[in-house]
Input
Amino acid sequence: MTRANILCTEHLDLVQRGGHDRVMDLWDEAELPESGEKKTRNRTQRLTQAEESHYASRALDPSAMTPGPDGLLRPEDVSNAVFLGDSMEIGPLLPRGCVDVLVADPPYDLPKNFDGTRFAPMGHEAYLEYTRAWLGAIADSLSPSASLYVCADWRSSSAVYLALAERFIIRNRITWKRDKGRSSSVNWKNVSEDIWFATVGENYHFDAAAVRVRKRVVAPYRDKGVPKDWTEDASGRWRMTGASNLWEDMTVPFWSMPENTDHPTQKPENLVARLLLASSAPGDLVLDPFLGSGTTAVTARKLGRRFVGIERSGAYCALSLKRLETAAIDGRIQGYDGGCFSGRQ
Ligand SMILES: C[S@@+](CC[C@H](N)C(=O)[O-])C[C@H]1O[C@@H](n2cnc3c(N)ncnc32)[C@H](O)[C@@H]1O
Output
C-alpha cells in the first residue's frame, strides 16, 4: 500500500468520524520533506508549458462534434465536458432543457485581465445588456425545474437582479463575506459579494437538510432539565440549523490551500459545494458558462454531479482539466467534510 493509499483510507475513516482538521493535518504531513521539517508550503497550482498544451488539447470544440438531429450538441456530449470558446456562441448549442443548475461567475463590471483578455468597466446599462445577452444564450438549456446562481459585486448586482428578474423567479440573494479586499482612503473596503438565487419555475430542488450549519448555542433553553433542540459535548453547546443567506465562514482560496491557482477571481470549492448540495441531486447536470479555473466543474465532480463548463481561455481550460483529473482521485473539499461545513480555514 502506498503512502497515498494509506492516507486515503485514513482520510475516509476520519471523515466518517468527523475529524476534518486531522485530515488536513495528515495531508500537510504527507507533503513534508523527508527530514520532517515543518513549514507551510505555497500550494498554488501552476502548469508547465507542456502540461498546459497537453490539457488544453483535451478541451472540446463544438464545431468538431457531430450534432444531434436538432442541430444541437447531443446530451451525451455535454456530460462532464469542458468547452473552449465563447459562451455566447456555445450556450445556444447546448441541448434544450438539459441543465439542472447554473452556477455563473461572470466578469464583474471592473477592470480585469483574464489571461490577456482585458475586461473594461462598461457602466450599469451596458452591463445589464451584457447580462441579458449571456443569460439569453444559455436560457434554453435550462430544465423547467432548474435553479440559477449568479455572482456579482455591489456594482454589478443591480444589473444582474434586473436581468434575472426579466426571465426567472428570484428567490434570494446570498451575501458572501469573502474577507479579502483593497483598502481605500476615500471609500469602505469591499469585502462582500452577492450570489443571486433564481429558479426557472415554481418546482425546483432544494435540500435544506444537506446544507444545515452548526451554530453555537448562546442561550441554552432546557425543558425539565433536558436541552431543547441543542447538544452539549466536549466542543461546547451547539445545534444544527438552516443555512442563512449570509455566508461568513468561507474565504477566497489562498496560497496555502491545495485548490489555489493563479486565476485572478477564483471562487472557493466549499462555496460552490454549498450551492450544489442545496440545489442539485447526484447525477444532475451543472452548467458554468464562465468556468475560469474550473471550480464549479471540480466541485460537481467531487460531489457526484455532472458538469458542463465553457471558458474562452485555453490556459484556464487546461487548469480546469488538470484540477478535474486530480479531483477524480482526491475528492476532498477543504472546509467540507462530507456532511458538515467546518467554518473558517
Ligand atoms: C470571474 S471568472 C470565473 C472564475 C471561476 N468562478 C473560478 O472559480 O475560477 C470569469 C471567467 O470567464 C471567462 N469568460 C469571460 N467571458 C467569457 C465568455 N464570453 N465565454 C466564456 N468564458 C468567458 C474569463 O476568461 C474568466 O476566466
Notes: Residues 1-41 form one domain.
